[in-house]
């Protein structure tokens, strides 16, 4: 039987308040494995960030993924993990890093009230960045501090309320961090088991797999899994 062509393209979707920059290390690792990547910055709706909803980001992600040659993967972290799940019907492989889960697992997340515009850029400080990235070195914390951006409160409200989404047919991998205080790793494990996804559990924080000291290890394990698809 003829072998399937190797997976050579991946779309990387960032988390809330971040941008494509948070995938810099992963892009290097994936490129070394022969996987070309796109890591776009999700854009606010024409009416502004306060008018941006989850569907605006979802539509951007789906359009970007559909533009890549097949076979292709979609990789998402946190909010980007949920967006990746919503693109799964267009993908040949999924990697979800500490993802905000769809319904019904979203009910396990702690409820929060969000303003129309979450002022993460305006209120960012080195101290708050260090708290969010306890497993990152000083250079990574400074790099992130200069790049955080404000986020749409509506996007976060809609995501945390739980989104109904069909299970994609392509193979999936979930990566969970032991020290994740935003998405309980047990929630990620239950979600992975329920949808038949592979699971890798690593030490670190919510953003640790991308920005922490062990990010290269996380990227390499994801690259190994993608290369085997």
Strands, helices and their partners?
Blueprint (H helix, E strand, L loop, with lengths): L8 E5 L10 H9 L3 E3 L15 H13 L5 E6 L1 H8 L6 E5 L19 E2 L7 H7 L5 H8 L5 E2 H9 L10 E6 L7 H11 L2 E5 L5 H4 L3 H13 L2
Parallel strand pairs: 1-2, 1-3, 3-4, 4-7, 7-8
Antiparallel strand pairs: 5-6
Helix pairs in contact: 1-9
Provide keyphrases for this structure:
229 residues; alpha/beta; Rossmann fold; two-stranded antiparallel ribbon; 9 helices; globular
Would you write up a description of this structure?
- This protein has a single domain (9-227), classed as Alpha/Beta hydrolase fold, catalytic domain (Rossmann fold, 3-Layer(aba) Sandwich), CATH 3.40.50.
- The chain has nine helices and eight strands.
- Helix 1 (24-32) crosses helix 9.
- The strands form two sheets. A six-stranded parallel β-sheet has the order 2-1-3-4-7-8, with helices on both faces.
- It has helices spanning 24-32, 54-66, 79-86, 126-132, 138-145, 153-161, 185-195, 208-211, 215-227, and strands at residues 9-13, 36-38, 72-77, 93-97, 117-118, 151-152, 172-177, 198-202.
- It has 229 residues and is α/β, with parallel strands linked by helices.
């Amino acid at each position: 039987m003829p072998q399937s062509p190797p997976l050579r393209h991946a779309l990387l979707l960032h988390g809330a308040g971040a941008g494509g920059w948070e995938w810099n290390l992963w892009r290097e690792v994936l490129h070394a494995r022969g996987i070309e990547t796109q890591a776009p910055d999700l854009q606010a709706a024409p009416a502004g960030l306060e008018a941006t909803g989850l569907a605006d980001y979802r539509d951007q992600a789906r359009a970007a993924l559909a533009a890549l040659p097949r076979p292709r993967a979609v990789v998402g972290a946190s909010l980007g993990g949920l967006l990746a799940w919503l693109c799964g019907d267009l993908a040949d492989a999924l990697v979800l890093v500490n993802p905000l889960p769809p319904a019904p697992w979203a009910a396990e997340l702690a409820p929060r009230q969000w303003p129309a515009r979450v002022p993460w850029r305006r209120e960012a400080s080195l101290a708050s960045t260090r708290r969010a990235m306890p497993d990152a070195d000083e250079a990574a914390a400074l790099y992130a501090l200069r790049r955080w951006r404000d986020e749409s409160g509506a996007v976060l409200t809609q995501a945390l309320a739980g989104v109904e989404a069909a299970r994609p047919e392509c193979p999936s991998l979930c990566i969970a961090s032991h020290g994740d205080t935003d998405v309980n790793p047990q929630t990620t494990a239950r979600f992975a088991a329920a949808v038949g996804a592979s699971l890798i559990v690593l030490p670190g924080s919510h953003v640790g797999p991308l920005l922490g000291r062990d990010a290269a290890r996380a990227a390499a394990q994801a690259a190994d899994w993608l290369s085997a698809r």
